Amino acid sequence: MTEANGGLLLSARARVPDHVVYRTFVRETVVLNLQTGRYQGLNVTGGRILDLLAADETVGGAAQRLADEYQRPLADVERDVGAFLTDLLDRGLIEVSADGDA
């Protein structure tokens, strides 16, 4: 991801679309795409990212909160969150809006 694209993603909002449902359990979050019938299991951190985004955080805001919570360098968390969200986007499990209207 280039710095320009990374900056756009960090200022964007991501949301789980209506055709996707998820449920958090103690050790994982299960995400189901109702259109395809395919599901994805996420670890605790992946589930936390979805929770932060559902609370109307920007991608960058969610990364900052995770960096604070896990005491990790912000640049590392931003890179990891970006890669994670790109994977979810490719699977149709999230939608991203650059204008803050996800």
Portion of residues within helices: 40-55%
Please give the largest β-sheet: 3 strands, antiparallel
Helical segment tally?
A: 4
Q: What radius of gyration results from the CA coordinates?
A: 13 Å
Order of helices and strands: HEEEEHHHE
Which strand order spans the largest sheet, edge to edge or round the barrel?
A: 2-3-4
What sort of overall outline do the alpha carbons produce when their principal axes are compared?
Answer: globular
Question: Could you tell me the number of beta strands?
Answer: 5
> Low-confidence spans: pLDDT under 50, at least 5 residues?
1-5
Mean pLDDT across every amino acid position: 88
**CA-to-CA gap between the ends?**
21 Å
Structural class: alpha+beta
Strand content: 15-25%
